[in-house]
Amino acid sequence: MLILDILYYVFIIVASFQVAYYLIFFSQFAFQKETVPVPKNIPISVIICAKNEEENLKEFLPSVISQNYPNFEIVLINDASYDYSLEVMEDFAFKHSNIKIVNVRNNEAFWANKKYALTLGIKAATHNHLLFTDADCKPISSNWISQMSAHFSSEKHIVLGYGGYFKIKKSLLNKLIRFETLFTAMQYLSFAKIGMPYMGVGRNLAYTKDDFFKASGFMKHMHIRSGDDDLFINEIATATNTSVCVSKDSFTISHPETTFKSWVNQKKRHVTTANHYKPVHKVLLGLFYASQLLFWLSGIILLSFLFYWEVILCFLLLRFISQFIIVTYTAKKLDEQDLLPLLPFLEFFLIIFQLTIFISNLVSKPKHWK
After folding, report:
1. Per-residue confidence at 365, pLDDT binned at 50, 70, 90?
2. Are 99 and 67 in contact (CB under 8 A)?
3. Eight-state DSSP code of residue 334
4. Which residues, other chains included, contact 301 with Cβ-Cβ below 8 Å and sequence gap of 6+?
5. What letter would DSSP give residue 80?
6. Which segments cross the bilayer (predicted)?
7. What percentage of the chain exceeds 90 in pLDDT?
8. How many other C-beta atoms are found inside a 10 Å radius of the C-beta of residue 290?
9. Residue 98, class by beta-carbon neighbours within 10 Å (0-12 exposed, 13-18 middle, 19+ buried)?
C-alpha cells in the first residue's frame, strides 16, 4: 500500500531524528558533570511575587528567611491580593529587618499583570543581583542562595535553576506533572549547555538588575499575559552570559496542581508564550515535538499492519534505548528517578496533552496570571 510505504519512510526519518536529537542535544546536560563554583557571598535580593498566597507565605517563606547566606534581602511583592497576604508579609517584615514589602494596587493599564508587579519589585530591590522564586516554592536547602549566586561572574549574568514539585504517592497526575517538568528542564538546560539558552522558570531563576533595565524590562512583551520568566530569558540570554545550576542544594520545590483541570489551565497560560520565542528556538522545539508525534503515530500504525515489523521494531528499540539512557541520567541529576518505569506511557500522554492544549488555546485563552 502506498500510504504504508510513505508512513514507513516517515517513521525511519523521524526515529533517526529523535535518536540524533537525544544524543546531540539532550546528552549535553545528561552526561556533563556539575561543577559548583566557590560561593562569592555577593549581596542578593530575593524577589517573591505573591497574589492571594497567605497560606503559602506562612508555609514557605521561613525557608527563605533562614537561608545560610551573609548578605541578602527579601523583596515581597503583594500583587493586589484580596486575601490576607499583605498582613502575613507585614507580620514577617516586623520580625525580620531584611524584608522589604512592595504593595501593588491594580492599575487600569496593567490589571492582573504579574510583569507590572514584578517590575515594581525589581525597582525596589537594593542589590544588583536578583534571585527569583514563587510564593508557593520552598528551597530544599539552606544553601539555595549560596549555590545559585555562586554562578554569577563578570561574564555570567543569568543563572538557570531547577524547580521541582513535591511527590505524592499513588498519584498518576502527580507523576504526569513531574514528568512534564522534568522533560521541560531537560530541554532548556540542555540547550543552555550547548550555548542556546531559550528559557528559564520563575520558580528558580537569577539575573541582574542591570540586565533587566538594559532590556527595558518586560516592555517588549508586557501585553502577553505570561512569560515573565521564559520570554524575558529568551530575549536576553546568550551563549556567554548564561550559566546552569543544578546542584541538589540549589533546587526549589512546590506543591503541584491537584486536579487535572487546574493543571490544564496552568499549562494553557504557559504554552502561549512559546509562539513568541526566537525563530531558531521555535523551529528546533517544533521539529522535536512534530517528530515525537509522527514517531508514535506512524510506529503504531505500521506495527498494527505488521508492515516491515522487524525493521520497525529495531528502530523503536534504538530510539527507546537512547531515550531511556539520556532521561535516566537527567532524572538522577534532578532527583526524579521514580518516573523512569513509566517513561513510555508518560511520554505518550504528554504528547497528546500538548496537542490538546495547543488546539484548546486556539479556541479559548486565559487572560490573567491568577
Report:
1. low
2. no
3. T
4. 4, 7
5. S
6. 6-25, 307-327, 339-363
7. 79
8. 12
9. middle
Sign of CA dihedral 118, 364, 198, 177: positive
Q: Does the pLDDT of residue 109 top 70, yes or no?
A: no
Residue 174 makes CB contacts below 8 A (sequence gap 6+) with: 165, 167, 168, 256
Beta-bridge partner residues of 72: 44
- Please give the C-alpha separations between residue 3 and each of 303, 307, 308, in angstroms, as whole numbers: 14, 11, 14
- On whether the CB atoms of residues 56 and 267 are closer than 8 A, the answer is no
The residues, any chain, with a CB within 8 Å of residue 220's CB and separated by 6 or more, are 235
Torsion 242-123-97-370 (CA) sign: negative
- Name the nearest CA neighbour of 339 among 191, 140, 183: 183
Residue written as grid cell 539532550: 26
Render 260-298 in DSSP notation, one character per residue: HHHHHHHHHHHHGGGGGS-HHHHHHHHHHHHHHHHHHHH
Side-chain-side CA neighbours of residue 38 (13 Å): 0
Residue type, 18: Q
Q: At what angle do helices 309-333 and 172-193 cross, to 10 degrees?
A: 80
Across the range 160-167, mean pLDDT stands at 97
For the chain, which domains are there? 2-30+279-356 (no CATH), 44-258 (3.90.550.10)
On whether the CB atoms of residues 163 and 252 are closer than 8 A, the answer is: yes
What are the two backbone dihedrals, phi and then psi, of residue 263, each rounded to the nearest 5 degrees?
-65, -40
Sorting pLDDT into bands at 50, 70 and 90, what band is 246?
very high
Q: Is 110 helix (H, G, I), strand (E, B) or coil?
A: helix
**In the predicted structure, residue 370 carries a pLDDT above the cut 70:** no
| Average pLDDT of every residue of the chain | 92
CA 300 to chain centre: 31
Count of positions (residues) in the chain: 370
pLDDT for the residue numbered 226: 82
Which of 228, 235, 233, 226 has its CA nearest to residue 268? 226
Which alpha helices (H) appear in 165-278, and where do they start and end?
172-193, 209-214, 230-236, 260-271
8 A C-beta contact, residue 89 and residue 101: yes
d(CA 366, CA 370): 9
Please report where in the chains the cell 521541560 appears, as a residue. Answer: 184
